[in-house]
Amino acid sequence: MAKQELPQRFMETQSLMRRYMHREMSKEGQMDPHHGQGRILMLLSMKEAVSQKDLAFVLGVRPQSIGELLGKMEKQEWITRTPSTEDRRVMLVSLTEKGQEEAKKISEKPHFGSELFDIFNEEEQEQLLDFFERLIDELDEKVGGEEERKEFSKHFGGGHGGFHGRRGFGGPGHRGHHHDCCDFF
Questions:
Q1: 68-to-37, 71, 72, 96, 130 alpha-carbon distances in Å
Q2: How far is CA 34 from CA 18, 74, 104, 166, in A?
Q3: What integer pLDDT is reported at residue 60 of this predicted model?
Q4: Rg of the chain's alpha carbons, rounded to an integer?
Q5: Are the C-beta atoms of 56 and 66 separated by less than 8 Å?
Q6: CATH class of 31-108
Q7: What is the SS3 assignment for 82?
Q8: Can you tell me the distance from the alpha carbon of 138 to that of 136, in angstroms, rounded to the nearest whole number?
Q9: Among candidates 89, 19, 9, which has minimal Cα distance to 51?
């Protein structure tokens, strides 16, 4: 019953891949662009200033949680928060020069990950890539990725930020065909 084992094996692979990538990024002193502060840095690198409320919405986190993350980032001098000139109750979040440098480091393509697929020959790699693309398209359809893309575009002006891969920060579900190592977001 291979079909019944596939979801479990896929989840095991995903979990191990995340652990591997996290370990390799830590060795290299890199921040994970798909979690916490790394995600915020990447989003802010796409737009000059974003309201704290919009960041919370796009990241799918509670306003209190985003506030805590932003507080830590302020202490590291990566961001500034300033009241909007249009509505003083709205806090706009922007990258500092130091934050822009950190975002640039994060967006650089890591040199690890692709070696994992050396166990497959070129034809098998192409097949695996095709399988992943078909599975991603099916999942995209089932979870309604279109609404997420529209919301992202509304908040970030089109969602073509050019960050890693088809599921990176080109917008949720972005249909670009880059195949960087961190496309498992």
A1: 10, 5, 7, 18, 40
A2: 10, 19, 14, 13
A3: 84
A4: 18
A5: yes
A6: mainly alpha
A7: strand
A8: 5
A9: 89
Other Cβ atoms closer than 10 A to 125: 14
Q: How many CA atoms lie within 13 A of 7 on its CB side?
A: 2
Residue-wise pLDDT tens digits, 41-96: 888 988 889 999 988 888 888 888 889 989 999 999 999 999 999 998 899 999 99
Verdict on whether the full-model pTM lies above 0.70: no
The residue type of 85 is T
Which residue's structure tokens are 């975002």?
103
Amino acid letter for position 60? G
Give me the residue spans of the domains in the chain: 31-108, 111-185
CA angle 47, 163, 27 (to 5 degrees): 115
- What is d(CA 104, CA 166) in angstroms, rounded to the nearest whole number? 19
Query: In a 3-state reduction of DSSP, which class is residue 108?
Result: coil
